[in-house]
Design brief:
Elements lengths: L32 H10 L2 H13 L10 E3 L3 E7 L5 E7 L2 E6 L4 E9 L6 H22 L7 H6 L10 E7 L21 H8 L8 E4 L13 H8 L5 H10 L1 H4 L4 H10 L3 H9 L8 H42 L4 H8 L3 H11 L1
Parallel strand pairs: 5-6, 6-7
Antiparallel strand pairs: 1-4, 2-3, 4-5
Helix pairs in contact: 1-9, 9-10, 11-12, 11-13, 12-13
Length: 356
Amino acid sequence: MESISYFKTISVRDFHFDDNDYIFIKEDLPMGQADVNVNLWLKDTKRFADLFNAILFQGKAVILPENLHPSPETTAVSLQDAQGKNVVKKQYRDIIMNWQDQAVLMLLAVESQTAIHYAAPLKVMLYDSMEYAEQVRVKWKERPPRLSSAEFLSRFQKNDKLIPVITLIFYYGTEEWDGPLELHQMFDLGTEKKHAELMKKYLPNYHINLVDVRRLKNLESFQSDLQIIFGMLQCSQDKYALRTYVANHKDYFQKLDLETYHALGAFLNSRQLMEINVEKNEREELDMCKALEDIYNDGVQDGMEQGRRSGIAEGEASHKKEVAFQMQKLGYSLDAIAAVLRESVDGISQILAVVG
């Protein structure tokens, strides 16, 4: 029971970037900040509906934005600990919405991930099951006065029904997902394949719905700006491809709303872009094209300065080697050479060993 509390923690950012492949100065954003910005962006009902329509219905407009309504993102359940005391456990959903159509009532949830979660099936199973437990609690609270003994023991009536929950894991990390996609993949069932397959028939399973946005196919299934943003993410590891993509979609990227600008800072894990965002947050529309160029130009200038400093250092090292070699030829001792060049005797010995 106590293991449920593990999933109250926020995923740790775990990015590693190659300076040669990115135009940004990469710094990890504060823990949770990236997901918060992405979640605020995805909470827009048009984007939220488009995400589920593309994944569930191949882009067909089944879920309409006007039929989506925010649902409480915190669910609590009361459990008994080892000492028999009631302990309240809470779960915090990233996004969950109530989809109410004419004949359908369903809960749609999104859990954002910047890093691979190797216990994702268990995490989602617990989130969903706690949502169902809350529904059972509410129905029991509204129960009629007369119940059968079985219904009383079950705390659930024979004809009661639960509202289904569909959860998507919205993964936008740079590394390809190599975590489990179902609960069965988390089990160690031994090496005997025949026995393992037999046990799987009796072991309950739980699948996750992974949306790996950097590797999604059929982006044309998306009808909102999700298509543009996901396309950008799929070329973000190549600085030239990214600049070209943004330039080709400049009509969109030159007029961004604040939430989209924040989300892009999170998607690209760019503290520098986030700082630009803060400075310009009073503007109605934000120009990402200019921001990218500014960051790129700053990066070029930084690279040139680093190159200049590196060249000076290399020149000084080469000069020391030449002086040490000439002094040695003239018969100066190691102590004398070290004193002139302000190096240790061991340092001079190493220099002369390389020269020799």
